[in-house]
Amino acid sequence: MSVERVLRVPEERFAALPDFPWTPRYTEAGGLRIAHVQDGPADGPPVLLLHGEPSWSFLYRHMIPGLAAAGLRAIAPDLPGFGRSDKPAAASDYSYANLVGWMSAWVEAIDLRGATLFCQDWGSLVGLRLAAEQPHRFAGIVLANGGLPTGATPLPPAFRLWRAFARHSPWFPIGRIVAAGCSRRLRPAEIAAYDAPFPSREHLVAARRLPSLVPTRPDDPARAANERAWAVFERWDKPFLTLFGDRDPITRGGQRPWIERVPGAAGQPHAIVPRAGHFLQEDQGPWLAERVAAFVRATPAPGRGAGV
Question: Domains (ranges, CATH) in the chain?
Answer without folding.
Answer: 6-297 (3.40.50.1820)
